[in-house]
Amino acid sequence: MITIIFYILAAITLASGLLTVLSKNPVHSAIYMIVCFFSIAGHFLMLNAQFLSVIHIIVYTGAIMILLLFTLMLMNLNEQHEPVKKVASRIAATVSACLMVVLLLGAFLKATPTIEAYKAAEIDFQSVKVIGDVILNEYLVPFEFTSVLLIAAMIGAVLVSKRENKA
Amino acid sequence: MHDILEQVGINNYIYLSALLFCVGVLGMLYRRSTIVMLMSVELMLAAANMLLAVFSVYHQDASAQVFVIFSMAVAAAEVAVGLAILVAIFRNIGSIDIDNLKNLKG
Fold it and tell me: Which GO CC terms are listed, alphabetically (chain A) (predicted)?
């Protein structure tokens, strides 16, 4: 049962990822990407990583994709903004991506890792309570630096996209 | 549902992440629209995040999930700055085609 759900979710993830990459209209790409991120959140939920799943939906589909869609609407982009690439470079891109697939999958398939049999422990290690405990005790300083990073990114984004005076 | 790794196996998760990463690579190489390239970078980041979460469950350690949360914050910052740069480029050049950005070419 769980295996079937996993395969369905994996198919949705890969298909929507491919459609993101290949669809002509950038707005369609963004919407397929939302589907892809929801299915990744589903994977997190299947792994019982509740906090990650909710954070993934909030950050990616809530914040990042709205930002991307808003920018797309602002620039009013559609298909004719993107001229077709030359056939040679398309073929080169596809061939190199396929080579990457062959390389990675070949490496993972041919490797003989020493994976000991996984057995679920009875202890609770990924509920929201435990994650909050770990963040605020063990990783408090990186957590604070994350907020500094976000403020710096915000100020940088405002400065970069501000309209310059023609002086 | 805490025994999903017993049923699915960690191998399948590794393959899924590798394939999703390769889809991101394909988008990076195949498209010319800068905004779709940014989306492909997001796909690659999401694949890496998913593998981190899977290994966190495999080792039953919450630290990797905290690391995923930090990497999501970095992704959010990256998208904000990247889109700001895109808006500036669009305002100056009038398109976001990557091939038009060759002012620095000698």
Answer: plasma membrane
